[in-house]
Amino acid sequence: MKHDTVLTVAITGMNAVPDNPGAGLAVARCLREAYGKRIRIVGLGYDALDPGLHRREYCDSAHLLSYPGSGTDAFFARLAEIHDIEHIDFLLPCLDAELPLLVNLAPRLAECGIRSFLPSPEQLARRAKDRLAELTREAGVASPETLPITHADFFHDCERKDWPFPLMVKGVFYDARVAANREEAEIAFRAIAAEWGLPVLVQRRITGEECNLAGIGDGSGALLGEVMMKKRATTSRGKAWAGISIHDEELAETARRLVAALKWKGPIEIEVMRDNQGVYQLIEINPRFPAWIYLSQGVGRNLPALLLALALGEAPPALLPPRPGMLFIRYAQETIVPLSSFESLMVDGRSELESEKP
Amino acid sequence: MDNNQDRQGKSLELPKPENLMRLALSDSGFVFDPVSGNSFSVNGSGMAILRRLQQGTDLTRIVASLCEEFEVDALAAERDVIEFANLLRNTFR
Question: What is the CATH number of the domain that holds A180?
Fold first, then answer.
């Protein structure tokens, strides 16, 4: 793709922490490898210690945002401040909690000149965990039975109500824990309710193999560039530490049906369990790229680059055919950060990274 | 006679060739399933059995060819094939 001017892309989710990384740094890496210096990448985060904000190879500058919990107006005001400095052409959010705000803010951002490629508020709501049953019925996809509960008393006699342990206890927005007995379930309920509010969701636990699919919905019902991954090693929080690309036409078809039912627009991650009968059971749908998205570049299907092309109305980059058998393995390393960069982020909420200074 | 019967006349259900065809086999004995993402390694005799099962070869012929290739008696070869075939059938449904 050719641009007369350098394109400025702002990416959130730079919290590339080991046990539960945001996708921002991986997205930035994909775009940097596709576009080189033809784009400026603005890293957006919430903590001056977010590692991605300090990776000069991927971020040309870094800014701290207002937390989504501070409200739509505060969030928009902070983005507008950053836009005044950076002149953002395209915003690519990578965190679940930002999406409810941003899908509503998209028209206002577009008026300011910040483009995005996001689902509508209704599309976003229809893939929420507490509405998955409705969606899977429409799409003809299997999913484990899920029950919203508002009190931990449910676990006193849940086995008599045909909800035997182990069960999954989940937050409406985030978090999922396995509960092997009543005590564990009550602890999980209280922790999740305190952080994510009520209701808490109880889901039958499916045994089998977990597989994930990442892709892009074009907004008219088509799924583009699907990349599938099976986790080979996980962190203590169940996040992929190593994984391998796979290809199963049945999983692709499952994802196509879901994307078509939603008419999804934007990045999407579909999490499924392949149960012991070989049936794919939908566990959840994330409205963003996953942290393992760099695997898409590894298999010749750079999804963040495809997204940018779609958003700009340009010819999409060529995608290679599915390529199963490509592994990714994460590793931990230290990024050295000058005190001045850290200070600048802490005090001013922004940092122009060292390599960009004259 | 059913060529998939063992020496006691018991019929053996072999894994379906189409379920094994997708497996990528390397000469080192490394096997990768592109659908599940699982991988494992097999020894020389396991590789020989797997390749023949992929071709849809029946039990009698697999045992005969193993006896020839590995200088093993027919009883031991048949036992190994049955055990390995059951393992594959349960893994690749």
Answer: 3.30.1490.20
Domain annotation covers residue A1: no
Distance CA A71, CA A105 (A): 11
Following DSSP, what letter does each residue of A214-251 receive, concatenated?
Answer: EEEEESSS-EEEEEEEEEEEE-TTS-EEEEEEE--HHH
Query: Pairing mode, if any, of strands A265-275 and A240-246?
Result: unpaired
Q: pLDDT, tens digit, for every residue of A66-118?
A: 999 899 999 999 999 999 999 999 999 999 999 999 999 999 999 999 999 99
ipTM for the complex shown = 0.83
C-alpha distances out from residue A30 to A36, A58, A89, Å: 10, 9, 18
> Cα dihedral sign for B50, B52, B58, B61?
negative
Task: Kindly write down the DSSP assignment for every residue of B28-44, as one continuous string.
Answer: TSEEE-TTT--EEE--H
CB-CB neighbors (< 8 A) of B39 in chain A: 244
**Distance set, CA A225 to CA A35, A185, A254 (Å):** 18, 39, 14
Cα separation, B60 vs B40, in Å, equals 26
Within-domain flag for B10: no
> Does A212 share its domain with A301?
yes
Using alpha carbons, list the distances in angstroms from residue A87 to A58, A189, A200: 18, 44, 41
3-state secondary structure of A345: helix
Over residues A178-195, the pLDDT tens digits come to 999 999 999 999 999 998
In B, minimum Cα distance to A251 occurs at B35
Give me the sheet containing A176-179, strands edge to edge: A146-149, A200-204, A167-171, A176-179
**Domain span at residue A302?**
123-129+207-329
CB-based contact B37 A278, cutoff 8 Å = no
* Among A61, A25, A44, A48, CA closest to A351: A61
Q: State chain A's maximal CA–CA distance in angstroms.
A: 70
Using a CB-CB cut-off of 8 Å, the residues of chain A touching B34 are 246-247, 324-325
CA distance B54 to chain A (A): 19
Contacts of A278 in chain B (CB under 8 A): 93
